[in-house]
Amino acid sequence: MIGDARSDLPVTITGLGAYAPERVLTNDELSQMVDTSDEWIMERTGIRERRIAADSQALSDLSLPGARQALEQVGSDGSDVDLLVVATVTPDMMFPSTSAILANELGAKDAAAYDLSAGCTGFMYAVVQAYGMVAAGLSRRALVVGGDVLSRILDWTDRSTLVLFGDGAGAVVLEPSEEAGFLAFELGADGAGGEHLWLPGSGSRKFEDPDKFVKMNGREVFKFATRVLVSSAEDVLARYGATVDDVDVYIPHQANVRIIDHATKRLGIPSDRVVINVDRYGNTSSGSIPLALADAQAEGRLRPGSLVLMTGMGAGLTWGSALMRWTQRLEAPPAEPAPPGQARAKTTGGSA
Ligand code: COA
């Protein structure tokens, strides 16, 4: 699926927030659990550490701080949100949806609320859906959350997956605006590759051990990821009539530094325009792009007029891009460094 954001009603991101749990899990700690090393993980993935949710924290708990932060930026207490989409593969439970749980916690009484599953591309899919509903006039204030608690579905004895992932969540508010915001989108899926990254024991096909853990064919996923990060970005840029030279801020899915470097080089985007935080968070699935957006915001890299390219990819296999012109100067980050275990956007409600 590909298209321009052609609606008469321009839509943009007006609020942004993120949160990662406090517990930091280092590569050295992982090497005490499985046969791996900091050197191997850094060389193959660029991941230095990741955050892990407390036993008491489910997805809605990780999502709430970032959602509140995003809503604060638009002066909302949550009651006027009329659409709430949570992109995740690790909801609190199959039902009720995490969106409905969050809508209740935020006091969004009139909101349509549902969860969306598109692997690590979930946040991109959810943004495009919310865009469509706001552009069509169905929603006036949409809250899109992307987040995952992947630590719950990892096999803690499997070094091939354990070292890659982490927990975190972020949120954006989408609203009609004077000027566009969103410019073009591209989304896709290839179900034939589904078995390369899957959670086979998690649904109506089978709901039992030992298939309750993530399984992955790392090499196939690597090849897929480097291919679609490039093709999806090129497609969405061409659709809008832009080139990589026009891109000011590139936010790829934070799976692995090698994958990001590969895509960045193939695309020809200078490295100083790329946002990377996978070294600190690992792959947080649907949380990855909003966490990286929040970091870009905290670093003052999202300026009005900046052309922002976001591309996700993940289980499905799926991919998706959105191209947008940044329209709002969101609340500035705190000047002082964040305390250990909490990241930079903390004083505006969350941490990322
Ligand atoms: N620590 C140490 N050794 C490990 C290891 C770990 N955590 N994980 C795997 N290995 C070993 C393998 O067993 C293999 O050993 P062998 O040669 O004796 O069989 C060796 O390292 C090389 O494994 P290989 O799978 O070829 O490594 P790789 O260079 O392909 O890197 C990934 C593995 C997973 C890092 C890489 O394939 C990748 O990044 N894939 C994409 C994964 C991803 O991003 N998924 C999410 C997408 S949303």
SS field, number of helical segments: 10
Largest sheet: 5 strands, mixed
According to DSSP, the number of beta strands is 14
**Radius of gyration, whole Å:** 18 Å
Helix content estimate: 25-40%
Q: What hetero molecules are bound to the protein chains?
A: coenzyme A
- What is the H level of CATH, i.e. the homologous superfamily of the largest domain? Thiolase/Chalcone synthase
Structure description:
The protein is of the alpha+beta class and 352 residues long. It folds into 2 domains: 8-180 and 331-348, Thiolase/Chalcone synthase (Peroxisomal Thiolase, Chain A, domain 1), CATH 3.40.47.10; 182-325, Peroxisomal Thiolase, Chain A, domain 1 (3-Layer(aba) Sandwich), CATH 3.40.47.10. The protein contains 10 helices and 14 strands. It has helices at residues 27-33, 38-45, 59-73, 98-106, 122-135, 159-162, 218-240, 257-267, 278-281, 288-298; strands at 2-4, 11-19, 23-26, 49-52, 83-87, 112-116, 142-149, 167-176, 182-189, 197-198, 215-216, 249-252, 307-314, 318-325. The protein has a 5-stranded mixed β-sheet, with helices on both faces. A hairpin with a 3-residue loop joins strand 13 (307-314) and strand 14. The radius of gyration is 18 Å and the shape is globular. The two termini are 31 Å apart. Mean pLDDT is 92; it is low at 331-352. Coenzyme A (COA) binds next to helix 2, helix 6, helix 7 and strand 13.
